[in-house]
Amino acid sequence: MYRKVLVETEIRSGGRLLEQLDLAKIPVTAAFWLYADDAAEWRLVIVSPSVETLGPRQLYALIGVMLMNPSGAPISIPLERIFLLSPHDIRYQQVRLAALGAGAGLLVTSGPSRNVSGEDAYIYRVA
After folding, report:
1. Which pLDDT tens digit goes with each residue over 60-85?
2. What gap in Å lies between CA 69 and CA 43, rounded to an integer?
3. Highest mean predicted confidence (pLDDT) among 50-59, 65-74, 92-101
4. Phi, psi of 46 (to 5 degrees)
5. pTM: predicted TM-score of the whole model, two decimal places
């Protein structure tokens, strides 16, 4: 099956969005691009306790404003490709285990030793 490549533009755009979240003091436990075989696309996953405290709707609304980036160039990630998870979500826990020992910016490849449900991830941060 054909797999799309995560390009540098997407990696930089994800980093810019993380900077905006940090500036807004929204806590981010983890952030990573995750390749979803079922959708054949890379998704930016943001893990934050704000998913539980603010609620996903409000957090998506805030991220939508950040993507428009009123103070600079828009961040070119469609909101539909951003997924919010609670730090308690099992999908985050799987990626967290797979990324143990990997530094930021590294690609974690799926496989029998990685158990990431057939997906790959580009890690910005994982706590």
Report:
1. 999 999 999 877 889 999 999 999 99
2. 20
3. 50-59
4. -120, 120
5. 0.84
Distance of CA 60 to the CA centre of its chain: 13
Amino acid at 121: A
b/e burial code for range 27-53 (CB count within 10 A of at least 16 → b): ebbbbbbbbbeeeebbbbbbbbebbee
CB atoms within 10 A of CB 16: 19
110 close to 16: Cβ distance less than 8 angstroms: no
The DSSP symbol for 12 reads H
The residue among 95, 110, 105 whose CA lies nearest residue 12 is: 105
Q: How far apart are CA 94 and CA 110, in angstroms?
A: 11
What pLDDT band is residue 101 in, cutting at 50, 70 and 90? low
